[in-house]
Amino acid sequence: MSNLLLWTMWRLVMLSTVLQVRSGWTFSCPVICQCTEQSFRCTRETQLNSSAKSSLMNNIRLTHLPLQEVPSNTFRDLHNVDRIEISQSDSIRIFRARAFHSLHSLQEVLIHNMKNLEFIKKGAFSDLPKLKYLSICNTGLREFPDLSTIFSLEPLFFLEVGDNIKIDTIPPNAFLGMTEEETYMNLVGNGFKEVQRYAFNGTKMSKLVLKGNRNLRKIHDEAFEGATGPSLLDVSSTALHSLPALGLQQVTVLTARSAQGLKTLPPLENLVNLQEAHLTYPSHCCAFHTWRRKHRENAFLGSFGNLSRLCNSGPPQGTGYPSASDMSYPEYSLDDFDFQYLNLELCLSDAPIKCTPEPDAFNPCEDLLGYAYLRTATWATAVSSVLGNLAVLAVLLTSRHKLTVSRFLMCNLAFADLCMGVYPLLIAAVDQRSRRQYYNHATDWQTGGGCGAAGFLTVFASELSVYTLTVITLERWHTITHALRRDRKLRLRHVAAMMAAGWGFSLLAALLPVLGVSSYAKVSICLPMDIETPASQAYVMAVLLLNAAAFLVVCVCYGRIYASVRNPRLATRRSDTRMAKRMAVLIFTDFLCMAPISFFAISAALRMPLITVSHSKILLILFYPINSLCNPFLYTIFTRAFRLEVRLLLTRCGRCSDRAWLHRLLGLADRKPRNSASSRKPSSLRFYAYHIKMQGCILNRGPK
To answer: What's the short name of a Pfam family annotated to this entry (predicted)?
Structure first.
C-alpha cells in the first residue's frame, strides 16, 4: 500500500514539473500588442498605448499562438516594426484577408512550422511597400499563398516558400502584384506537381530555385510568358521530364543535378544566353560543345538588330546574388546577403559553355555511329547478315532430309549469327533516329530496355557462335581421327547434349550484366565494358579468356586434322578431307577477324586501353558482326548440297521440278558403290539423265 502511495505521489510531482515546463512554451503576448483568450491585435493603437520604451520595439516574434485564425487587421499601421515572425503555432488554420495591412516599415515576414495552417486568404499581405523578404516554410497550406497585393517597392525582393508538401500547383499569375522589381524566388522542397502557364507572369526574376520539389513533373511551356528572366534556374532533384520550350532565353546558369527524369534538353535556340550548366547526365554537355556564341549572336541579330559589343571582363568582385546552395533555412538570415544586383550587359564571345559533368572516355561527344562510312557499312552488314541466316534456317528446317550432326550444328550456327545480325540492325536503327541529337537520346537508350536487349543479344550470339564453331571443329577432328571406328562416331544425341551446355553457358554470360555483374549501359554500343568492380572485371576477363581458349582448341584440332589428312597410312574419306580443309580456312578466318577485338578488349579490361571508344566502334560494329555475314554464305549457301536443297524446296512449290529431279538422280549415281554393276557403265546412266533433262527442257519450252 505504501509503495502504491509513493508511486502516485511521484507521478503527481512529474506531472506538475511537466506543466511548469509547458507553461514556458505557452503564448507570450508582445508588449506592443493587445491579447485576450480569443484574439490578439498588434496595431498602431496598441503600439501607442504601450510604454514609450516598448513603442520602439521593431521585432515581433509570436510562438505557440492558441488561436485558430489570424483575423483581418491583426497587424495594421505599425510604425518602426521591420520584422514579424509567427512560428510553432499548431492551432492556427487560416490567415484572413488584410491580416498584414499597411505596414510601411515592415521588411521581413516569416511564417514557419505551422503544420495545421491550411489557407492564406487573398489579400492577407497588402500594402507592404518596404517588404523585401517573405518566408513561408513547413506549413500545411493546401494551395499557393496569394501574394497579389503586397506591392513591394524594394529593389530586390526575396521570396522563400519551402517544405509545404500539400501545395501541388503554382497557379497562373501567382506572383502578379507582388513586386515590379527584381525577385529571387527560393521555392524548395514543396509538393509541387505542376507549374501552370503564366505562373510567373509580371515578374522580374533574377533567380528561380525549384530544387527539391521531388513530385514536380511539368513546367508548362508558357509558364514564363510575360516574365523577365530568370538568369539562374535550378531544377535539381525534381521529377521533370523536360524543360519548357519557351521563356529560357535569359537563363545564363542552368542547374539540374540529380534530375534523373530530365533526359532531354529543350531546343538550344531557347538557351541563347546560357554560359554555365550543371546537369545530371554527361551526354547533355555534348549539346553545348559545338554551340558557340556565334550561333547565339545570329539568333539575337534576327530579333534585336546588330549587336557588336564584346565583353572582355567578368562581373565586379564582391557583388551578386546568393547561390542556391547557400539558401537553406532556418539558418538563413537577411543580413547574410548582399542585395546589390548587377546590371549585366549581353556579352557575346566564342568561349564554350562551362558544363558539368563532362563526358568521359566511354561516352564521347558523337553520334551512336560516329562515322558516315561506318553507318553505311553497318546497314549493309546487318541487312545481309539477317537475310542470309534467315535463308539458311528456312532451307535447313524445311528440308525433308534426315537431321544429321552437320545439319544440326549448321542450324545452331545460323541462329547465333542471325542474333548477331540483329544487333547491328538495332544499333543502326537507333543511330538513324538519334542522328545529330544523340545527346537527347543517350540516357533513354543506354538505361532503357533497348540497349539491354541489344547487349544481351550480342553477348549471347557471340558466345554461342564461338562455342558452336568449337564444337564443329571437335566434331570434324573426331570424325576424321576415328573414320574406321563406327562405334566411336558421334551421334546426334551426343552433339545435342554438347549444344545444350553451350546454350546454357551463352545465356548465363549474357544474363550476368543484366543482374549487375558489369553493365550494358556503360557505352552507347551496349557491350559489357564496365570493369569498375572486381566482379565486373573478372567477368569481362573470363569471357575474353574463354574465347581465346576456344581459339587455341581450334588451332590444335586443325593442326591434328591436317596431320591426319597428309598421313597416307590413315584411311579417311575424301569428303571428310575436303570438308576439313574448307572448314579450316573458314574457322581460321573467323577467329582472325576476332583476334584484334580480343586483343584490344583484354588490354582495356586490364585498365590499359590502347584505343579510344570511338575507334573501337569500327572493330565492334563493323568487324565484330562480320562473321555473321560470312558464315551463312561460306558454310552453307555456297555449297553444292545447299543449292540442291534449295532446288528441292522449290520443287515442292511447283518450280524447277525437272532440274531438281535431275540433281537427285545424279546424286544417286554419285553415291553408287564402285563394285556395283552400274558403276561399270556410268556413261549409260549419265546419258539417260541427260536425255531426260533435254526432253524436259524441250517439253517445258512450249511454243513461242
So the answer is: 7tm_1
Q: What is the pLDDT of residues 82-91, one digit of tens each?
A: 999 999 988 8
Alpha-carbon distance of 105 to 130, in angstroms, equals: 6
Does residue 22 fall inside a structural domain? no
Give the number of domains in the chain.
3
184 forms beta bridges with 158, 207
* Burial annotation 66-78 (CB, 10 A radius, 16+ → b, else e): ebebbebbbbbeb
Amino acid at 207: K
Peptide bond into 330 cis (omega under 30): yes
Q: How confident is the model at residue 166 (pLDDT cuts 50, 70, 90)?
A: very high
Q: Which residue in the block uniquely carries the three cell numbers 553507318?
A: 375
Say whether both 677 and 621 belong to one domain.
no
Q: Hey, which residues does 219 pair with through a beta bridge?
A: 195
- How far is Cα of residue 210 from the mean position of the Cα atoms in its chain? 22
Alpha helices per DSSP H over 519-610: 534-566, 574-605
Q: What ranges make up the beta strands (E) of 140-231?
A: 156-162, 169-170, 182-186, 194-195, 204-209, 218-219
The CA distance from 319 to 136, in Å, is: 27
CB-CB neighbours of 87 under 10 Å = 17
Where residue 58 falls (left for φ over 0; alpha for ψ -120 to 50; beta otherwise) is alpha
Q: Please give the residue range of the domain that contains residue 242.
A: 44-312+344-356
Residue 382 contacts by C-beta under 8 Å, 6 or more apart in sequence? 421, 422, 423, 424, 425, 428, 625
What digits encode the pLDDT tens for the residues 378-389?
898 889 889 889
Q: What is the spatial distance between Cα 171 and Cα 147, in angstroms, rounded to a whole number?
A: 12
Among residues 324, 356, 388, the one where a domain terminates is 356
Do 235 and 117 fall within a single domain? yes
The three three-digit cell numbers of residue 557, written as one number:
584440332
Q: Based on the domain organization, do 151 and 266 belong to the same domain?
A: yes
User: Grid coordinates 525437272 are at which residue?
Assistant: 658
Amino acid at 400: R
Angular region, 201: left φ>0, alpha ψ -120 to 50, beta rest: beta
Give the 3-state DSSP-derived string for 571-590, with helices as H, strands as E and coil as C. CCCHHHHHHHHHHHHHHHHH
For 515-533, what is the mean pLDDT?
Answer: 88
Beta carbons within 10 angstroms of residue 272's beta carbon? 21
Q: In the chain, what is the greatest distance between 2 CA atoms, to the nearest angstrom?
A: 140
State pLDDT tens for residues 226-272: 999 899 999 999 999 999 999 999 999 999 999 999 998 888 888 88
Asked if residue 381 and residue 248 are part of one domain, the reply reads no
Q: Do 697 and 604 have their domain in common?
A: no
Place of cell 547565339: 296
- Tally of residues, the chain: 704
Per-residue pLDDT, averaged over 366-388, amounts to 86
Residue type (1 letter), 509: A
Which of left, alpha, beta for 429 (phi over 0: left; psi -120 to 50: alpha)? alpha
pLDDT for the residue 611: 67
- How many other C-beta atoms can be found within 10 angstroms of the C-beta atom of residue 42? 24
Mean pLDDT in residue range 508-515: 94
Pairing state of beta strands 34-35 and 40-43? antiparallel
Residue 330: DSSP 8-state? S
Q: Position of cell 559553355?
A: 353
Q: Of 424, 396, 399, give the one whose Cα is nearest residue 412.
A: 396
